[in-house]
Write a structure and sequence with these properties.
205 residues, alpha/beta, Rossmann fold, six-stranded parallel beta sheet, 16% strand, globular, binds adenosine-5'-triphosphate, binds nicotinate mononucleotide, Cyt_trans-like
Length: 205
């Protein structure tokens, strides 16, 4: 196994939660716990991104974001990793292709909040992503209903599984996806950053 890469055995079901985690928050923890349970995952990897290809401004340094994420977690089944930086990939299609090559036999599931499903059709080679791995979508305040009618959701509608089949998602041959309704948490990294800069602004006055 390559140095710095998380360990995984063939047959394991691993959820991939990609994100800027700038910073990580309770919302991430909550959807991770729900995804683990509902999709019967052995592990969830938090792929701390070197930078979202669709976001104009770069995030805080990667090491800082990883350290904050690790402090927040209390579950050995959730691994915080900078594997995208190690692979040299930023685009999700490239990351998934590289991980599938590196970890033959591992069953990866891409995880995302419903806000991301709303703009999934803007991601690079999004149809390839849907053809490579099953996708688990977790409801997020404000986008639970819009996500059902999102462009990608419409195009992929015949591969959508009912929620009561979520436990089989990792075993499914892609395309396959599920939208999970859960008690939603409104935490967001941008709100945390805005609150911090408001505090810093106040302190300067
Ligand atoms: N409160 C939440 N409920 C559901 N999904 C969430 C929540 N917060 C984050 N996510 C999902 O977690 C993944 C990583 O999120 P990210 O690191 O971008 O945090 P964020 O809070 O969405 O950041 P920002 O506010 O800067 O956009 C994304 O798929 C996002 O949809
Ligand atoms: O590959 C793409 O085109 C693409 C476009 C937007 C977002 N993503 C990925 O989606 C994940 C969530 O991104 P973010 O910045 O909203 O946390 C993260 O892993 C990004 O790399 C990927």
């Amino acid at each position: 196994m390559t140095r710095g890469f998380p360990l995984a055995r063939p047959g394991m079901r691993i959820g991939l939660l990609g994100g800027s985690f700038d910073p990580a928050h309770e919302g991430h923890v909550h959807i991770t716990e729900t995804a683990r349970r509902r999709f019967c995952l052995d592990r969830v990897w938090w792929l701390v991104s070197p930078g979202n290809p669709l976001k104009a401004h770069g995030p805080a340094p990667l090491a800082e974001r990883m350290a904050t994420a690790r402090r927040l977690l209390d579950d050995p089944a959730v691994i915080v990793t900078d594997v995208e930086m190690r692979l040299g990939t930023r685009l999700t299609a490239d990351t998934i292709a590289a991980l599938t090559r590196h970890y033959p036999g591992v069953r990866f599931v891409w995880l995302m909040g419903s806000d991301n499903l709303c703009q999934f059709h803007l991601w690079d080679r999004w149809r390839e992503i849907a053809a490579m791995v099953p996708i688990g979508v977790l409801a997020r305040p404000g986008t639970r209903i819009p996500a059902r009618n999102a462009v990608a959701a419409q195009i992929l509608r015949r591969w959508r599984l009912p929620q009561d089949q979520a436990g089989s998602l990792a075993r499914r041959r892609p395309p396959a996806w599920v939208l999970i309704n859960l008690p939603m948490k409104s935490h967001s990294s941008s709100a945390i950053r805005a609150a911090r800069s408001g505090v810093a602004e106040g302190a300067r006055r």
